[in-house]
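A common beginner's mistake is to predict each chain separately and then try to dock the pieces by hand. The better habit, illustrated here, is to supply every component at once so that their relative placement is modeled jointly.
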Amino acid sequence: MLEQLLIFTRGGLILWTCKEIGNALKGSPIDTLIRSCLLEERSGAVSFNYDAPGAAYTLKWTFHNDLGLVFVAVYQRILHLLYVDDLLSMVKQSFSEVYDPKRMAYNDFDETFRQLRMEAEARAEELRKTKQVGKPVTGSVKKQGQVLKAGLEGGNKRVGEGGTKKDDGDGIKGKVSNLTNGHSNENHKMGDDSQEADRANGKENTSSNVAVDISKLQKLRSKGVRGRGGVRKADSIGNKSSKVAAAEPAKKATKKNRVWDDAAPKQSKLDFTDSVDDNGNNDHVEVVAADQGESMMDKEEVFSSDSESDDDDDDEPGSDEKPAEAKKKGWFSSVFQSITGKANLEKTDLGPALKALKERLMTKNVAEEIAEKLCESVEASLEGKKLSSFTRISSTVQAAMEDALVRILTPRRSIDILRDVHASKEQRKPYVVVFVGVNGVGKSTNLAKVAYWLQQHKVSVMMAACDTFRSGAVEQLRTHARRLQIPIFEKGYEKDPAVVAKEAIQEATRNGSDVVLVDTAGRMQDNEPLMRALSKLINLNQPDLVLFVGEALVGNDAVDQLSKFNQKLSDLSTSGNPRLIDGILLTKFDTIDDKVGAALSMVYISGSPVMFVGCGQSYTDLKKLNVKAIVKTLLK
Amino acid sequence: MDNWEDMKIVAEQWSKQGIEFVQQIPPPQLYAAIAVLLLATIWLFSVRLFRRTKSNTVLLSGLSGSGKTMLFYQLRDGSSHQGAVTSMEPNEGTFVLHYENIKKGKVRPVHLVDVPGHSRLRSKLEEYLPRAAAIVFVVDALEFLPNIRAVSEYLYDILTNASVVKNKVPVLLCCNKTDKITAHTKEFIRKQMEKEIEKLRGSRSAVSTADITNDFTLGIEGEVFSFSHCHNKVTVAEASGLTGEIDQVQAFIREHVKP
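With all components supplied together, the output reads:
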């Protein structure tokens, strides 16, 4: 049963709620929907889940962009109501007939709504009844796809059989898989497939015992191998699981030295750490005065304003991609429409413009699914809107996309780190920043840059070397610390990073440092034990800022990295309020010319703002993100 | 091309006739006519200039959830209808305030703008600030302390905005939701805001100018910040959007949008 159905304007005034269903909603699902979904440019999504103490709701919505109305339906998540989408569109239609901008109360709509609801419910009942009849048909079609996939993978022979084990196929399917298995052991496979076909036929006719026996035999055989085979099948796309499987037992035992086959026979441990204590003065490293000038964080961002003609020039080659005949018709009607300006934007009108825009975004290194979601969201916000006169569709779409991009890249909360540092200072505890990220993105280098910038603003910094795995990590930080003349807390290698961090924070509280910068080892987002170790570090020390370091060169993997990091951090957290990634540090920004899409992908998928941008390899190369410049570059 | 030549000839004839007619008018009349024309155009321009200096735009700003949309509808219609949710777009309207509908005589309509408070939509405020005649900054008196940092940062950004400082736009700090028992008093809120802004002043001026986009700094150097230091007038008032007790806000608006 529907919990509630609301109609409100985009300006926020509620126009109508269903009074029959008198339940008050627990929590504030509508506000949360607006804040975390509609304003975050995820309005292309299908539904939104909201959890409050005592209730779990799912929300569905639709817009009427022309009149500026939003229709939202709320229902309990455990009930899978099928008629909600239908009902919403019907309500939209009938309400837009009644709507009058001057009117604020629509009590007569109750009656209309009741009728609509009964209609929708009745229709859903019918659909459900017909669906139950047709289920077996659809079920087999789905499994056909599975068989094909199993055949194509060409993996373990037993895996193929294991996959088809559950099938109620028909003979045609067997023949199809015959054709696809042409590459692999033909004879062998042929035999199996004929058996398959026989078995399938057997099951259908429910007669021949021979087929059933063979199937049982195959079942027994495959069961033994299912464990390994199943896992391998699932991960045959990437080979990461085998690595994990190999790493797991190794990690459970103590960490053994990796022995290569052709290594020199005997080697003492490669630990060249100089035996120096914390205040050791190693004369090899000269103390370069840490005055390399003003950090670029404090410099004005100067960017040239490109002329408008660039946009128009780019539009021409883009439009050439469309097929010629459609272009002729489209051009004339669009010109006509742009002059009269009366057309309502339809999905078909927006389609080509959005497609071109998506392609353009993807050439700028925005992850594919992010570009897709963004385009869907822009489409949802423009559909049904009236074109103002003398504007082309493409320019309307461009303006809407620009608006959306600025909205996403603008931080949701203030990213004034210095203010937070001051606030922590008042409470007499150090401000802890943890740098996390995958291997090789530049954590240690950018940690030094941030330390330099903070030092320039008269904040006392302390580094904590919690990367106890990579050779030379501690020395690297030690060198930076010596050059910048800031204290460093280190415990050498092969220690538990969480404990090292804890002790570092205690040390900082003792000697009155304002900020503690914690460096961690790089880790892949799929590596379960390492992610567990990271979440242990974060849970134990409760840092003030978890900074995800990501490189601007990353492509579609950015989405995977960030979402998996956040997921692991929230799954493996012990407390009720898991600490997620609070900010992003974008590195290697100078290596990408205008392919700045990684910033957008990362911000969109994680919701956290970009706090710093690393644009070089010296201490001063740290900037703030210039939202307008990025948006301009993305849409150029 | 014959048509062209024909039309040219006709046009020449007409212009000749016109010039002859003008030359027939005695000079004083001609000069008088020109003078009247000139005066009329000058007068029109000056009237337009004068009218433009006093705008009637009042902005309703504040954090998300502080009650601006409810206030907007109270001011406009005298009732808050069925409630409001987080605004995604500004609410604008030019109207005579509801309580003044009863009054007789010419009352100047007010252009009221309710700007969404959500941080992602903060840029919309920048569009309206140059034209503002007065700003009502709505603060949630109920949930004041948990949000005090965000509130003070927002107010600081408004008070240091270039247009606000140059035009000396008056600001009313409106403490909303005072109908609830646990709401704070306006004095408490004022003191807390002054303290927070003092802290902000310290940290914001510690960084170099390019870091933060504030155009000006607030207050007098060396003294604890107080709202009386601002060049524009900042006053505090109480209101309740839900029950309709908005007299102080209405008085403020009327005071600064003179009829």
